Every structure is written in C-alpha cells, then in structure tokens.
Amino acid sequence: MAETTLQQSAFTEARLRQFWIKAKGWIALAVIAVALVQAIFPIVWLGLNSLKNRLEMFARPPIWFTMTVTNENYVATFVERPFLTYMWNSLAVAACSTFFAMLIGVPAGYALTRFDFGKAKRHIAFWILSTRMMPPIVTVIPIYLLFSYVGLLDTKTSLVIAYTTFNLPFVVWMMKSYLADIPKDLEESAMVDGDTHTGAFWRVILPLAKPGLAATAIFCLIQSWNELLFALILTETTNANTLPIGIAGRVTQYKTEWGEIAAAGFAGCLPIIVFAFIVQKHLVRGLSFGAVKG
Amino acid sequence: MVGVSLRHVYKRFGELAVVDDVNLEVADQEFLVLLGPSGCGKTTTMRIIAGLETASSGDVYIGGRRVNDLLPRHRDVAMVFQSYALYPHMTVFENLGYPLRIRSVPAEERRKQVIDAARRVNIEELLDRLPKQLSGGQRQRVALGRALIRRPNLFLMDEPLSNLDAKLRVQMRGELKHLQHALKTTTIYVTHDQIEAMTLATRVAVMNKGVMQQLATPKEIYDNPANLFVAGFIGSPSMNFLQGGVANGVFESKGARITGLQLRDARDATLGVRPEDLTVCGAQDGQIGGEVFSLELTGDSSLLNLQVEDTHVMARVDKDFTAEIGAKVWLKANPSRCFLFDTRTEARIA
Asked: What is the ipTM of this complex?
C-alpha cells in the first residue's frame, strides 16, 4: 500500500516537472511575442496607413486592413514632393559619416587598447567620451557659425562633418572594448611571422572584429539617419535637406499630412532594415572562439 | 642556424626589474630551456629575444648581429605561443601559409611548402579545417607547423605544452625533441615544468625573480645545484631542507644527526637531501627520526612523509615498505649526496 502511494507521488512529481518545463517554454514564447508585437506593430501600422486614404486613416473603429489600397500618399511624397532627393541626401550623409567615423574611430580604438602611452591613455579615452556628455544642442550655434564662416552651410559636407564628429566617440569606445577582447597574441604572432603592425591589424585583427564593426556601423548609420536637429539648423534647401526634415515639414501651419508622413516614414525605415539584414551574419559573435587555448 | 647572446639585459617596469642583469650564451643548434616559477621573468626574456618587448638596457645578439633595434619580423625567429595564437578566421592551410604569404611566396610554391610542413607535424588531413574545429593537440601541431614552415634561424617556444593533457604532453615532448634534432634549429624554450626542462634541454637556465640562478646541463643542475632556490625547484618531490649547523663533518638539527659529511663547518646552515638519497634503517644507524605522517604508493616506489619535530622530511622508499601512520621510523642519508647552503644568503657552501 505504502509502496503504491510512493510510486504515485513519484509519478505526480515527474508529471509536474514535465509540465513546468513546458510551461517555461510557453512563458518564454509569450514574452517574445509581446516584445515582437511591440517592436513590429508601429512599422506595420505605418505601412498600412501609408496605403489608406485620409478617411480610412481616421475611421473609428480603426480599419486595420484597407480594401481600397491607394498609392496617393506615395505619389504625393515621392513624385510631387522631392522626397527622393531627401532620401538620397540622407543616404549619402549617413553612409559617408559612418564611413569616416569608422575610418578614424577604429584605429583610434585599437591604439587605445594596444599602445602604452602612460597616464595620458586614460585621460585621452575619457576626453573622447566627454565630448558626448553635453547635449548636442549646446554646440549647434558654434557649429552653425563655424560652417557659415567656411561657406559650408546648406551642404551635405557640413552634415557629414557634424555627424562624423558625434559618432566618433561611440566608435572609439565601442571598438576599444571590442578589440580589447581579441587576444594580443594573435597580432604578436603575425608580427613574428613577418608581418608589419599595420599588416597584422589589417589581416588578423580587423577580420576578427567584423561583428564589432558591423554593430558599430549600424549604430552610426541609425544615428545619422535619424538626426533632425543639426540637419534643421545647418541645411535649408533640397541641396542638403534630409529625410527627417522632409517628414517634419509635412506638419504644416494649417494641416498635418499624415498620409505623406506615413509613406515617407515607412519608406525611410527600409534602407536601415536592409542594411541590418546585410550585416546580420557578421553580428553573430563567436568568430574568435578557438583562437587560443584548448 | 645561429647562436643567441644576451648581455646584461634588464627589463624594468618602474622600480621593479622583471629581468635583472641576464647574461646568456646560447650555442648554435642548442636546445636551451628557460625554467622558473611563474613571474620569474622567463617569458619576458623570451619576448625580448623575439622583439615583442624592448630591453630597458643591455644587448641582444642573434647570429652575432645586435638586434635590439630590429622589429620582430626582421629577426628571423619563429615563435610558438602558449595560447598557440592560431588565426581563427583562417583555415589550417591559411594559418600555415601565412608567414609565406607575407613574404609574397608564389601560390604554387606556398602550397608545396604548406603540405610539406603539414606532413612534418602530421596534420595533412586537417588543412581545410578552422582552428575551432581542432583538438588541443592538433592546434599545437598547427602552431608548430607554422613556426617551422619558413625555416627560421631560431625557434622560440613559450610553454607550448602547458595546455595539453598529461598523456599528450609526454607524446608531444618526444616529438618536439625529435623535430629539433632533425631540423637542427637553435631553440629557446620557456617552461615552468621541470620534467619538460630536464627531458628536452641541452642546457637549462633556471630563473627566479628576474635573476638567472644557474645555467648548466640538466644533470649538472640536478646533481650540483648552485643555490637553495635551484635545489628546491628541481626534483619531484622537491629536496628536503633541514636547518642546523655542521661541525667536524656532522650536521645537527632538531630531530636529525647526519654523520660522515665531507662538508665545511658552518653554523647557520641549511642541509639539503633529495628524497631518493634517504633510506629507511634501524634505530641504531638512524640519522633522521620521525613519525610517519603519510605513505603514498606511486607505482614503482612509495613516498614516505615523516614528521620530524616541526618539519616534514620526504623519502622515496621501496614500494613494499609498510608502516602505520604515527609509527616511529628512522632514515639514513647518503653523505655524498647532501648539499649545504648558507641559510641567510641561500648560496651553496662548497
């Protein structure tokens, strides 16, 4: 009798444990689902709205999926208004500023991890970071004056310079910590094998830093792509106006063009999403595993 | 093939000298082992030779040429790192071919040499793999192959076997010795493992606290240690030390009276005797008496640990020897195998 009770309780315990394992899986899935909806819903809603006419957009109860798909918002944005130019400006400015910030920042981060220049090292690293400590708006007027003296106002160059400057500290610090994780033995080995320091950096360290480079580049690109304040102050015409300015400009004195905002906003998300997909495989960390030890 | 020479080499970090006036002459084709505990400066000495560290002062010569101001790539040395330092994004083939690629060796010639090097270290079938797909022993072979592929003047090896398991270590040790014999390349090898040092080396340089303690053949170091540190560091289990004094060929300390010594009189001295130079005997001949603390069978012999007053004495005894823990046992020392050291200066007293 006692044995049967014991068997039964063991059986119940095993079932409970199994149930709990399953439940944990379901809970995890539910959390992921909520996070996914939260992340994707605004983009989907933006996309759906961009295909609706004005009436459907403000209908109550909301019309989730429109039956009368219209391209009027896209035509108004990209044909009647110079949004393609804005987009091109944004793309050029974001790509160039990301490129330059990486070009200068990655070697700087490397130097801060590998070269010994005494106490100055800590101070320089902190100084680089400190340039990001004040709100960007503080520097708007000096930068505006500076660019006006050198005749760079309303040019893409001015934005590239400004964004490169803002992105640089992030690149330096992110790459500094990433590169510090790559074993020093690897480049030393390359140098003993006959390579120069630059060669070892180029052929051994950089390929291993790909995940870090990809993450940092995405970060810079997003920052530059989304920036509004400096673009608003430093640019005036379609010569250099970027997408955020174009979108903000659809909030006019008399009305807000929600349809155009939705169309431009949705189209504006795409380049970043595409870029993220392209570099996605490099974001997977773990390349440097197997480098050292058994 | 070349010799290496270090003359009054120092490496200081602020006040601390991690390499302190090291003088070393490594002969052509010699296998020299730098041996010492961690932090003794042996790896730093090797890195100075490789050009990965600069000496604070002193001169380094490779093949008679002063190389202090030469970059690592101009020194024509190859180094095997403790971590192996394989390039993780390159296949074994690319890893082996890297030193040749840097020197712009044509692809066909490079391929030939890589296959040749791979054959030497038995990794021909692994050429397409990435380092992360290899076992510790295989990685070790790739690192070795990469070092020998361009036939350098000098091999530098920084604890290359320390990440391998015990069995593989013994096997690789043999292969290393064989390879060095075949290639006849001057080799400097860093280790903290005295067995590795004794088995591999033509000569051993024992280092401690940045200072070279003794430079001699393994046999000389074992049979004739220069000071207390070397005597204690070499040998497993390590040498027994007893504090006391010698008068008229008799050493006396608490719990021990060793006679028949051919040693100078000394008041404040440390007597060293290796576990294998002690034998169990009866009370009437006994020189060192104590209670059995432990008795460990190691296979071919047993290790008898005696508590002698406030110290322990280890003896290698016959494997059939038995004694209860706590039992009184007497040991006799071989007087010709006893070493005397100055307790204060730790120097050997002849």
From this structure: 0.85
